[in-house]
Design a protein that fits this description.
alpha+beta, 4-stranded antiparallel β-sheet, 3 helices
Length: 189
């Protein structure tokens, strides 16, 4: 017979709409109520042997302010039972803390965007660190430590100055001619 805390957890997942959502809701409620501990999750992770992984990539289309995409192998939550947030990782841009960024889930399960609220000039160094025992995957337990360093995309349009060499003051009879016999302006590059 489940404990009262576990009954509350089971009751809360009756409202979810997908298997992944139910798993995350169950894990979050169980962690939040104390029915499940980090030690329990580490035992599950060790037994299953397939902890979640993550890949970092930079948003290169420059149409949004989201600069970092995190693709986990499965949906994740914090070990406190709360949704994944910037508090669950360490992010710096050119060495400056970026703790004010906002994490948003994307359409693909396990995919999240980290929105910095601005478009960067480009080539800034982005450093990301996810500590061990900070996140829990919906299926396979505790996410191990991950870190990465990337360069942000160049999202600023270039400014170009053109300088024309030569002068149009050259007399027409001394202007060079092309292979077809037509006169080529002296300042043609």
């Amino acid at each position: 017979m489940p404990s009262d805390g576990l009954n509350d957890v089971l009751a809360s997942v009756s409202e979810c709409t997908s298997r992944e959502e139910c798993r995350l809701q169950f894990l979050g409620d169980a962690l939040g109520s104390g029915s499940l501990s980090l030690g329990d999750l580490n035992d599950v992770t060790e037994a299953l042997g397939e902890p979640a992984t993550v890949e970092f990539s930079v948003d290169s289309n420059c149409t949004t302010t989201s600069a970092l995409i995190l693709n986990f192998s499965e949906p994740v939550i914090g070990v406190d039972g709360l949704p994944f947030s910037v508090a669950d990782l360490s992010v710096a841009i050119d060495g400056a803390d970026a703790a004010d960024a906002v994490v948003s889930p994307l359409a693909a399960p396990g995919a999240y965007a980290l929105d910095f609220g601005q478009v960067f000039a480009g080539n800034e160094e982005l450093t990301v660190q996810i500590p061990a025992n900070q996140l829990v995957g919906a299926r396979y337990g505790v996410v191990p430590a991950h870190s990465g360093t990337l360069r942000l995309s160049d999202c600023v349009a270039p400014v170009m100055d053109a300088v024309v060499a030569g002068s149009d003051a050259m007399p027409l009879e001394s202007a060079p001619t092309g292979a077809d016999g037509y006169t080529v302006p002296a300042n043609t590059i």
